Amino acid sequence: MRHDELSHEQRDRAESFGAVAADYDRYRPGYPDPLIEDLVARRPSSVLDIGCGTGKAARLLAGRGLRVLGVEIDPQMAGVARSHGIDVEVSSFEKWDDRGRTFDLVTCAQAWHWVDPAVGAPKLVRVLNPDGVAALFWNFAEFDPATKAVVDAVYERLAPELIGPAAAGDDRTHLRTLETTKVFSSLITETYEWHRVESADHWVGNVGTQSNHLLLGPQRLREVQAALLEALTAAGGEVRLTGGTYTIWARP
Fold first, then answer.
1. Which one of 11, 24, 84, 231 is least enclosed by Cβ atoms within 10 Å?
2. Distance, CA of 69 to CA of 87 (rounded, Å)
3. Model-level pTM greater than 0.85?
4. 162-177 pLDDT per residue, tens
């Protein structure tokens, strides 16, 4: 995802995940323990998770005893989250009927870029309790140079449109967008670093859930995934990732 794009206007990408809901749940990474611990340490009595997807973040919070309500636009994604015990209301956040409910903590994991900030930011402030906080966060990762060369060679041959700049570990675009809304009293950023080693099969499964890959269409996506798996297996079968979870803490 290029963060200089108006992601919330790209509805074909924003609403492309339902068809791969099971794979999304299986292959997408979770979020680092230190971030989850910081969220739980606030002792919120109520949590709203915007764009909860299959519940990757909500389940980590619920598993630590928090009461979490998810809002998710895609019924199939919501169905997977419900199968994990998460209470989910199906709607975009912009059109969601909050019915006057407010929350101590609002989270949005890997999804705020799909929300129209002109509508979503004031609504986010409205559903937060006066002393509440919102945490908006995104995972990012980079390959080691050798792995990047292997992956880029496949993209150059089969899907050159997927070659782009490295993921930004300190992407201020999200922060600047929130600042322009002028509805928050405080915006603080924090990055939780992590390192991960994945099997080639798992990483290739993950790329099949990413919106820019889904736009290739089923046949091209299968071809790209098969070529990636073959190339990465030949290179050792592991993908080493260095990254983090970029987080914006927002207060009303």
1. 11
2. 5
3. yes
4. 987 655 556 678 999 9
